[in-house]
Design a protein that fits this description.
The chain is an all-alpha fold. Helix content is about 80%, strand content about 0%. It is globular. It starts with a helix and ends in a 5-residue tail after the last helix. The relative contact order is 0.12.
């Protein structure tokens, strides 16, 4: 029985890789067949998309666009995390702060970050500051909400146990509240990063001359290079998957892992 467990675990890990790959290959095959059968003169085959991506990679253009997008997301998301996590902890722990600020955040949160683009351009111009501002707005609210929710859903037995030992309010917050909230903070960061990656692409399509969003719209306008358009879309999806995977690695930290079943 003990020997079967490692084998079963290995099969499960292999299945997590093989099954998604099979689905992706099937989608690519169907895509290729449909384009060939319809004899489309505009929509590219998978091979044409790969060739276009290789063309951009060789001349360095692709890496410049990827670097520009990642830089903007990194700065905007980092600033949002610095603001959102302490603010969410404070609002979740102090009832007066929650009552005072929560209505304002609940009004701002449903506004699409895309709607802020005209104001961002008006305030900050068409440089890097505008998309950083949009990314900040898009990612700060999910992290605030999840952090507040994490504080409000702390199991009372943790607080009671700490109170029985007579710990100070500072120690209670540092040793009980923050560790209990970390899993929810990670969820908020995953959501915020996903929205941030979406928003930077939209902002680059409208207001900038670099980044993956600009690559897509420029490829469409400059000679209908739909092979580069599709390549840009796929690259955006792959990078988004990698970013989410990197965020999920945080769930394996000892201070966070206890909250998850797996």
């Amino acid at each position: 029985m003990q020997r079967d467990r490692p084998v079963s675990a290995a099969r499960a890990r292999l299945g997590k890789i093989v099954l998604p790959m099979i689905v992706i290959l099937v989608v690519i095959a169907v895509w290729w067949i449909v384009v060939v059968q319809t004899e489309s003169a505009i929509f590219p085959t998978p091979w044409q998309v790969v060739a276009g991506a290789v063309e951009l990679a060789r001349d360095g253009t692709l890496w410049e666009h990827i670097g520009a997008s990642l830089f903007r997301v990194g700065v905007g998301f980092g600033l949002a995390a610095i603001v959102a996590v302490p603010l969410g902890l404070w609002m979740g722990w102090v009832r007066g702060a929650y009552i005072t600020l929560n209505p304002l955040f609940q009004m701002l949160r449903p506004i699409s970050p895309i709607a802020w683009i005209p104001l961002a351009i008006l305030w900050f111009g068409v440089g890097d500051v505008s998309p950083v501002f949009l990314i900040f707005l898009s990612s700060v609210f999910p992290m605030i909400v999840q952090t507040i929710s994490g504080v409000h859903t702390i199991e009372r037995r943790y607080l009671w146990a700490a109170a029985n030992f007579g710990v100070s309010r500072y120690t209670l917050f540092r040793r009980v509240v923050i560790p209990a909230v970390l899993p929810q903070v990670i969820v908020g960061m995953r959501i915020g990063l996903g929205v941030a990656w979406l928003v930077v692409v939209a902002a680059e399509m409208i207001a900038l001359r670099s980044g993956l969003g600009y690559l897509i719209i420029d490829s469409r306008n400059a000679g209908n290079r739909y092979d580069l358009v599709i390549a840009g879309m796929i690259i955006i999806g792959v990078i988004g998957l990698m970013l989410d995977g990197a965020m999920r690695l945080l769930e394996r930290l000892k201070s966070v892992r206890w909250r998850y079943v797996r």
